[in-house]
Protein backbone atom coordinates (compact mmCIF):
# COMPACT_ATOMS: atom_id res chain seq x y z
CA UNK A 1 0.00 0.00 0.00
CA UNK A 2 1.30 3.44 -0.90
CA UNK A 3 0.86 6.50 1.24
CA UNK A 4 -1.67 9.13 0.22
CA UNK A 5 -0.07 12.09 -1.55
CA UNK A 6 -0.74 14.99 0.82
CA UNK A 7 0.57 17.58 -1.67
CA UNK A 8 2.83 17.60 -4.70
CA UNK A 9 5.52 19.72 -3.14
CA UNK A 10 7.43 20.13 0.11
CA UNK A 11 6.20 21.65 3.35
CA UNK A 12 8.41 24.55 4.44
CA UNK A 13 8.65 24.38 8.23
CA UNK A 14 10.73 26.21 10.83
CA UNK A 15 12.21 23.67 13.26
CA UNK A 16 14.37 23.90 16.36
CA UNK A 17 17.70 22.10 16.71
CA UNK A 18 17.40 18.93 18.79
CA UNK A 19 13.60 19.08 19.15
CA UNK A 20 11.94 15.93 17.80
CA UNK A 21 8.99 16.16 15.42
CA UNK A 22 6.99 13.28 13.94
CA UNK A 23 6.59 13.39 10.16
CA UNK A 24 3.38 11.91 8.77
CA UNK A 25 4.23 8.88 6.64
CA UNK A 26 0.67 7.89 5.67
CA UNK A 27 -0.40 11.20 4.08
CA UNK A 28 -3.72 11.30 5.95
CA UNK A 29 -2.85 13.68 8.78
CA UNK A 30 -4.85 16.89 9.04
CA UNK A 31 -1.75 18.55 10.52
CA UNK A 32 0.63 17.98 7.59
CA UNK A 33 3.51 17.42 7.47
CA UNK A 34 3.22 16.25 11.07
CA UNK A 35 1.46 13.18 12.45
CA UNK A 36 -1.98 13.48 14.07
CA UNK A 37 -2.41 9.68 14.53
CA UNK A 38 -4.56 9.28 11.39
CA UNK A 39 -2.41 6.24 10.56
CA UNK A 40 -3.97 4.21 13.39
CA UNK A 41 -5.01 0.78 12.12
CA UNK A 42 -2.78 0.96 9.04
CA UNK A 43 0.70 -0.31 8.22
CA UNK A 44 2.14 3.21 8.48
CA UNK A 45 3.96 4.76 11.42
CA UNK A 46 5.24 8.31 11.77
CA UNK A 47 8.94 9.01 11.36
CA UNK A 48 10.79 10.77 14.16
CA UNK A 49 12.98 13.61 12.90
CA UNK A 50 15.41 15.51 15.12
CA UNK A 51 16.88 18.52 13.28
CA UNK A 52 20.62 19.01 13.65
CA UNK A 53 20.19 22.77 13.28
CA UNK A 54 17.43 25.30 13.77
CA UNK A 55 15.82 26.94 10.76
CA UNK A 56 13.73 26.22 7.71
CA UNK A 57 13.47 22.62 6.56
CA UNK A 58 11.62 21.24 3.53
CA UNK A 59 9.70 18.11 4.52
CA UNK A 60 8.27 15.79 1.89
CA UNK A 61 4.60 16.29 1.05
CA UNK A 62 4.18 13.58 -1.58
CA UNK A 63 5.38 10.85 0.82
CA UNK A 64 7.55 9.29 -1.91
CA UNK A 65 10.94 10.92 -1.21
CA UNK A 66 14.00 8.68 -1.12
CA UNK A 67 15.41 10.89 1.67
CA UNK A 68 12.41 10.86 4.03
CA UNK A 69 11.37 12.98 5.76
CA UNK A 70 13.24 15.53 3.64
CA UNK A 71 12.02 16.48 0.17
CA UNK A 72 14.24 15.22 -2.65
CA UNK A 73 12.17 16.47 -5.60
CA UNK A 74 10.39 13.16 -6.27
CA UNK A 75 7.10 15.09 -6.48
CA UNK A 76 8.30 16.57 -9.78
CA UNK A 77 8.02 13.10 -11.36
CA UNK A 78 4.47 12.33 -10.17
Question: Secondary-structure blueprint of this entry?
Answer:
Blueprint: E1 11-15, E2 21-23, E3 47-49, E4 55-59
Antiparallel strand pairs: 1-4, 2-3
Features:
78 residues; two-stranded antiparallel sheet; globular
Characterization of the model:
By secondary structure, the protein is mainly beta. The protein has one domain (1-78). The protein has strands spanning 11-15, 21-23, 47-49, 55-59. Strands 1-4 form a two-stranded antiparallel ribbon. Strands 2-3 form a two-stranded antiparallel sheet. The chain is globular and about 35 Å long.
Q: What is the tally of beta strands?
A: 4
> What is the count of helical runs?
0
Helix/strand-derived category reads: mainly beta
Question: What spatial form do the alpha-carbon principal axes imply?
Answer: globular
Helix amount, in percent?
A: under 10%
Q: Over the alpha carbons, how many angstroms does the gyration radius reach?
A: 12 Å
Total tally of structural domains: 1
The order of strands across the largest sheet is 1-4
**Estimated share of beta-strand residues:** 15-25%
Q: List the helices and strands in order.
A: EEEE
Uncertain stretches of 5 or more adjacent residues? none
Mean pLDDT: 97
Largest sheet: 2 strands, antiparallel
Ends apart, CA distance between termini: 17 Å
GO molecular function, one term: 2 iron, 2 sulfur cluster binding
GO cellular component, one term: cytoplasm
Domain Iron-binding zinc finger CDGSH type: 8-45, 46-77
Keywords: 2Fe-2S, Iron, Iron-sulfur, Metal-binding
Amino acid sequence: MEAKIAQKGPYEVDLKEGVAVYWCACGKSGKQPFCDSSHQGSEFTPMEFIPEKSGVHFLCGCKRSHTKPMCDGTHLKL
